[in-house]
Design brief:
Elements lengths: L5 E8 L2 E7 L5 H7 L19 H18 L3 H16 L11 H17 L15 H10 L12 E4 L20 E5 L1 H10 L1 H8 L4 E2 L2 H7 L8
Antiparallel strand pairs: 1-2, 3-4, 4-5
Length: 227
């Protein structure tokens, strides 16, 4: 459940921080339907009030242009359709790319990149250069098995240094939740094994991430300790 509110008060109490948030509606019953009010956990997102940067705006329009070239539609039409789909998916209000927040722009770029990877839409630049949130980009590359460096389809799943399955272990039964993985084409996968991760990962600013149960299930990787 996603709810917008306004920060009313914040204070430090010993080594903890207490935050009071005001909402414009009675949410007591809604919240207790989802969790125990005394012990429930929530996620707090502080919205960045800065407006969209020129670099972010360029990313948005470059991604939209490539999508339009792929579909054969007018870029303005594609932009509006994707903005509405984004608002429907997130529950956010309609927005303008001229003055939206940095956070909203980052989320919209992530939405566009996920759409591009999902539908195998070719980009005129590396996906890494079109993503504002690299963690989210690496996650989508894994989810759709697209190489995080080249963007090629049917990528291998590389277990990063320190997370390699290793001799004598069965990747079908080992718990992958704490292992760092990255999607790499066969070509880049071989290069990493031949030359090591450090130089390649540093050059392209990529790294392994830990998958949640949704991702691991999609990849057919175990996330329970059944050894």
């Amino acid at each position: 459940m996603y709810i917008r509110g306004k920060l009313a008060h914040i204070e430090n109490i010993k080594y903890k921080t207490r935050i009071v948030v005001d909402f414009d509606e009675d949410l007591l019953h809604k919240i207790t339907d989802f969790t125990d009010a005394d012990n429930g956990e929530i996620e707090l997102r502080i919205e960045d009030s800065r407006t969209i940067s020129s670099a972010q705006r360029k990313m948005v329009y470059a991604n939209i242009k490539d999508i339009a070239l792929y579909t054969g539609d007018n870029p303005e039409y594609i932009k509006e359709i994707l903005k509405y789909n984004f608002c429907i998916e997130t529950g956010l209000d309609y927005f303008s790319l001229s003055d939206c927040s940095v956070d909203l722009a980052r989320e919209f770029i992530t939405f566009l990149i996920d759409f591009i990877l999902k539908h195998n839409i070719p980009l005129s630049d590396l996906g890494l250069n079109r993503a504002s949130d690299i963690d989210a980009y690496l996650y989508s590359c894994l989810f759709y098995r697209r190489c995080a460096i080249s963007g090629k389809i049917n990528a291998d799943i590389h277990h990063c240094t320190g997370s390699a399955v290793g001799m004598g272990n069965n990747r079908l039964i080992i718990d992958h939740r704490n292992l760092e993985i990255i999607a790499l084409s066969r070509e880049w996968h071989n290069k990493v094994h031949q030359n090591g991760e450090e130089e390649i990962f540093e050059a392209y600013k990529v790294y392994g991430i830990k998958g949640d149960e949704k991702l691991l299930d999609k990849l057919g990787l175990n996330y329970e300790d059944i050894t």
